[in-house]
Amino acid sequence: MTDFLVRHFVRNYQQVQDPAVRERYGVLSGAVGIFLNLLLSLGKFFAGVLTGSIAVTADAFNNLSDAGSSVVTLVGFKLAGQKADDGHPFGHGRIEYLAGLLVSLLILMVGVELGKTSIEKILHPEEVDFSLLTVVILACSILVKLWMSLFNRRLGKRIRSAAMEATATDSLSDVVATTAVLAGTLIGYFAHVSIDGWIGVVVAVFILRAGWGAAKDTLNPLLGTAPDPELVKAIQQLVLSHEQVVGMHDLVIHDYGPGRRMCSFHAEVPESDDIMEAHDAIDHIEREIHQKFGIETTVHMDPIATGDSEVAQLRDQVRELVRQLDPDMSIHDFRVTRGPRHSNLIFDVLVPHHCTLNDEELRRRITEQVQQAVPGCYVVLQLDRSYVGAR
Predict the structure, then answer these.
(1) Which CATH class is domain 229-385?
(2) Fewer beta carbons within 10 angstroms: which end of the chain, N or C?
């Protein structure tokens, strides 16, 4: 069913990096959610009024809030699909993350209100009538919500959407919640035990847990997370597959919303190579990264000495000394300037975020270790913080 809907309602559905295609996916998800959640809400509200069950009625309002969340998702994708303008040169893609966050807040609000109503029901219990129609409606709701969870999960994975993942999580929590309501209805009828309020509390807990998890998933890209390690590895392999490049460092990836990523890094090339050939290779790398990953790329070219065996030996020696402080620490832009009385060892140190040493302590310890290993040298170092996590 999912593939059928995608093929018929999402034009160019395979081009998931295209913001316009992502927008059509969002519209499809939102439209399906609005229709099915309104249908479920009406059915459950009728069943709740018929039986006097607070749990069933609360579940109806839960579906009504889900319909509102689907509206938010739909509007969010429409806004996120807007083209870049003078005020927003990187587009409006992060609105999709904001839409997911708003959906999460709506889920949390429903959970809080349902919890309050259920506690009142526990303190002031009322008899609940049994209806076979209610059982049928709840059972159908479970099946529909299970399908909606799978539907949004598949769409979310296909276009890597945090908003759709949040919606899928919400639908899955609804499956658990409605199952609890159905179980409470059957237990109340056959065991003659009034647990309607307690079931409402259980439903509220599931809803709050789902809302909190969805909020974290949408907050992370807004705050700025480290890029996917697999993506970093793939970019490194692509860059180093070009024979003109002997190393790379300072990779930074900026996420301005799905399909709107930019990256920059330094590519090390032998200083003896022809500058025009090296520049042509760098241009080719930028185009290749864009074609393969959909990422706009800017590369800074660093010429390094590769034919000087003494410099290479010093570089390896300093690299090992730095790794003794932290195995994830690395160096780059290593060069040597020689004088009549001493030599300057100039290099940058890439420091992972988990390193507990402050900059002053790092400078002191690295300088001391290098000067002990290479007497008579001066150490000129620059500390850089890693933006891609430990290597």
Answers:
(1) alpha beta
(2) N
Q: What are the start and end residues of each CATH 3.30.70.1350 domain in the chain? A: 229-385
3-state secondary structure of 266: strand
As to burial, measured by CB atoms within 10 angstroms (0-12 exposed, 13-18 middle, 19+ buried), residue 18 is middle
Fold of 2-223: Alpha-lytic protease prodomain-like (1.20.1510)
In the chain, list all ranges with CATH 1.20.1510.10.
2-223
SS3 338: strand
In sequence order, the 6+-apart residues with CB closer than 8 A to the CB of 146 are 171, 172, 175
Q: Is 170 exposed, middle or buried (0-12, 13-18, 19+ CB in 10 A)?
A: buried
User: 258: pLDDT confidence band, cut at 50, 70 and 90?
Assistant: low
Q: Give the separation between CA 41 and CA 47, rounded to whole angstroms.
A: 10
pLDDT in tens, 184-210: 778 877 877 777 778 778 777 877 877
